[in-house]
Batch of 4 targets.
Target 1
Amino acid sequence: MIRVKSEAELQNMSVACRAVAAVLNEVKDIVREGANARDIEDFVLAKFREMNVKPAFKGYRGYKYATCVSVNEEVLHGAPLRSKVFARGDLVSIDVGAVYDSYYGDGAITYVVGDVDEVGKRLMETGQKALERAISVVKDGVRVGDISYAIQSFVESNGFNVIRDYVGHGIGRQLHEEPEIPNYGKPGTGVKLSSGMTLAIEVMICEGDWQVSTLDDGWTVVMTDGKRSVHFEHTILVTDDGVRVLTQF
């Protein structure tokens, strides 16, 4: 069942979402040549303690860390390891979640280390704009397929592909709630959205084929063809005439 959130619930979610927004914004200063993924993990843990929220991912289904740091061909769930050292041109996707008084916020962003080639630049821009387009169609009465189609049509028209094996999701008292929000679909199909619903719209796109594999660690999802991917996500609130982005920064 998809739950409409009360004002009290939204207040708690807003605290969690503000923490997510803060770390995703401030961590850009850490994503530089010679830094490593553990630097991001340490920063997020310290910032969350300062903001009086808990990391949502740590311990979730056995995951050991507060952050997912995925580089280049890594799509999702990359462990924030000290051995993962950033080099110029790397695309570094950072996914974080926070919990405040049992309510969740979730967000992701991709940063580039220094300069990147033209294809990488277009991949980044397409991912960012696809998320903006998806958010722009959300309002009371639209269907999940309308969001999915907005992402897929824009991404494919720019010569890239959407990841099909992983999806956005509802969010609230649980990190993952109904409905699922794929990055592909047909307009006018799927669950109808209502004012007061909260969603994590999660754009994951790639420069090659969309097929993915999971590494032996059981977590890290990579592009099977070894090409690059990017990840952008916001937690949003559906309103009567549009949307409020709770993880905006």
Target 2
Amino acid sequence: MLSRTVCGLSTSIYIGLIAALVSSAIAFILASIASFGGRVADGVVCWLIDLVMGVPHIVLLVLISYALGRGALGVFVGISVTHWPSLTRVLRAEMLQVRSEPHIQCARSLGSSWVAIAFRHILPAVLPQFLVGVVLLFPHAILHEASITFLGFGLSPEEPAIGVILSEAMGYLSSGSWWLAVFPGLALLIAVLLFERVGASLRRLMSKEGVQQ
């Protein structure tokens, strides 16, 4: 059980890390489009944010995973395309604030394109918020991967995953084998809380640095 739990956590962490990075990249691209693409682009991105946030994550994850034939690909794509709205909203607000600063207007008047400005000036300014967003997305991605796998719409039963272990353990709870579900679930909870703690600490650190500056 310890071996399966460790292997399951490594699988969840791997999928969660890649999905969080992809979702964060989507958030940065959409926030850049909203900030520099004009009023119409901003309205479309805000509408997409409200649309995705209006539907529960688990429902979207199940639908996307089922449409892609379940498995690791469905889990990865589902998590990647459903966890970007909150970070997009934060990055959009930061980019709009940085965009109004004098040195950005000066660079624009000198002929720099918005793409060049975004990568040379905007990205370094919003990088702290971006890194915090990636770290905070990570535990949510891990937890949702285990959730849809537990429901039977994620990884296949042959793969080592916490969701698979918990799903199998449900059949043994009535016989008194409670440890088959408690210890893997506790390991998942500890991993999620640790990464969330890291993200919260990083956010406080960035806030203190911003106040000092």
Target 3
Amino acid sequence: MIAGLRLSVSLLTIVPVRATGTGRDAARQAMLLAPVIGLIVGAAAAIPLLLGPLGLDPLPRAVLAVAAMALITRALHLDGLADLADGLGSGRPPEEALAVMKRSDIGPFGVVTLLLALLLQVAALAATPDAAAAVLIAAVTGRLVLAWACRSGVASARPGGLGALVAGTISTRAALAATVLVLMAAAATGAAFDLGALRAVLAVLAALAVALLMLRHATRRLGGVTGDVFGALVELATTTTLVVLSTA
């Protein structure tokens, strides 16, 4: 379990933790423990959101919070979102779409998707009174989808890479257990702040629904999952959570 946690930290953040295990079992644990890493990402984003007493307005605080999330994750999830958008937007067969996703440049689909996601995140945080609590819930929920993306029956689109290492390693029962824990934590956080327990639960469920729909579409188009698919799902779930939590 410790090896999986260390690997999860090293894979999903810039926190300087040396992974002590890189095998398939450690990778499975890393994906299952990913919501815990969401607390690190959410805490980093919450810091600028708590700067209101220093005179900083909600909008610049929201921009700094989104920047903090990008920084602590090396912007890998954002890169995955852009790459998946380019791959799916190309309309090409699976092999060619995967080749598009591996390119170092970003195409028009990726640019537009990236901008829309970032704008939605900033706008949602700026409109949420308890934005620090909201970003914690969103960061945890975003990483919860990794368990579902790695569950049994989900194939890898490539013979190598992160997708091949973790695809199909997590049982549906384990993914459900992780979901229940996140829902309980989200409800407690929502109740403790001005978000509301029900809204927090609905935000998590909506994020999962959006992520699972995209997962289904991506696996059908590409033949399985890749590291870019994982990153895109994290960003989609994070964005959806923030948008739902920002509603009155």
Target 4
Amino acid sequence: MARPRKKTLGSYPTLLVVFSITLALVVIGLFGLLLLHAHKLGETVRENLEVQVYLERNLPETELLRLQQDLEHQPYVAEKAGRAQVRFVSKEEGARQLLETTGEDFHNFLDDNPLRDAYVLKVNPTHTDTASLRQLGRSLGQMRGVFEVQYPKSLFTSINQNLARVSLLLVGFAAVLVVVVVILINNTIKLAMFSQRLLIRSMQLVGATRFFIKQPFIRRATWQGFASGFLAALVLLVLLQYAYYEITQLRLLRDDYLIGLLLAGVLGLGTAIGFFSSFWAVNKYLNVSLDELY
């Protein structure tokens, strides 16, 4: 007959603690990934908003080149792969685009092309608020050779307002979630430490110093927090890769740098909570009276 396994002094369900902390960190990490991709989506939407700069008629080639260089050096023009997002649309190309869009050719009833040459530029996401766009319109309108500046003001305003509302909602929910998860992990470690209260008091009674008593508990809880953070980061990485595999368009919103910071934050959060929760819990049981231990 097998003898029952004897528990070692000071042992408690380590696997259960690590599992509980890992689960809590995965929840907050998933919401963090949602925030990152929502932020990237907002930037992508803003980057694809365009401003049309219509030019005076019959500008010479030198003036067109000068104007393009001036536009490319403006701080409100978005860049991609180190190149300013400015493209020239001739009036002939504009006529072709109009024909493709409407299906009607104005050459049938007009002798001349009434459209103008234009530069189409994409706006830096940091300059898409109402005040910046107003300043952008004035700045472009004062350039030599510019006839008119047009951009969908109502669309810009609507996008900014909607993104602001969604961001505020997500950040508020994230703050609440962080508090809940931190409290949950803290309570998990405190419950584990509760089972060690008598051992802590026994060590006190035999003359062990406070530092000697604290050290093994804090070290164990810190390593458990680190292990939980590592496991949570690994789970999040696997889930993220699976999401990219299932939804290929989601890869367009990928930002490896921010994702790396988030995973490091999950690892650091687990380690920090493990350390501080055990530190406070051990201090509590070092200072309570004998009657309060039961």
